[in-house]
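Hi there, hope your week has been kind to you so far. Do you reckon you could talk me through the fold, stretch by stretch? I've dropped the whole record in just underneath, so have a look:
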Amino acid sequence: MEILSIIPARGGSKGIKRKNIKPILNKPLVAYSIEASLRSKYITRTLVSSEDDEILDISKQFGAEILKRPLELAQDETKTAPVMLDVVEKLEQEGYKPDYVVLLQPTCPLRDENYIDSAFEFYFEAIKKGYDSCFGAYDIGYTHSKWRVLHDEKLEALYDFRIRPRRQDISEHYKMLAENGAFYALYCETLKKAKDFIGYNPIAYVTPRIIDIDTEDDFRKVENILKAKENA
């Protein structure tokens, strides 16, 4: 069974400059995902896709295979799925065809090999029930009064607030999950058909929330957690 791990690490991050190689405890951010992938007992091939030569060099130093990404797939508006498809297509041209593909975003350094392996074991059991893909998520509770704040501060209801069910009438239907960004796995053929890293019949691997680094404050939080682990 071949499982390809793809770690997309663009050089032009806007929120935090050079985010993917910004050091945490003297180790570049992308290295944490590379090491977790290499230590997984299920992943058979680990590859970093980037348009940035420095990121590629650092990734290679930490043991990952590297693939230079076309500049057109490294823009601010570029989505992740086309990047994954670019990797799969190029590897297939070389004669390599993985059974499964897993997306490991470099912004989740607290996700280790134990998380990856547990998620895969959960996914493999789910496959027997007909699920085609799996993603990491965390539970945000039971609610019927959920709203989305738009860019102009206007609110959009994510439920029919004119009906407004009573709290005691809330059922499993109202349980809310959020993707944690740490793990996405699916059949390679599903990736190609759906052109997305979530398939047609996904299941969520639910754990406590994992920090997905997006801000400088996130970096500080993760660094403090890692320091605490080192000193434990």
Q: What stands out?
A: The two ends are 37 Å apart (CA to CA). The helical segments are 29-39, 53-61, 80-93, 113-127, 188-194, 216-231. The chain has one domain: 3-138+178-231. The mean pLDDT is 92.
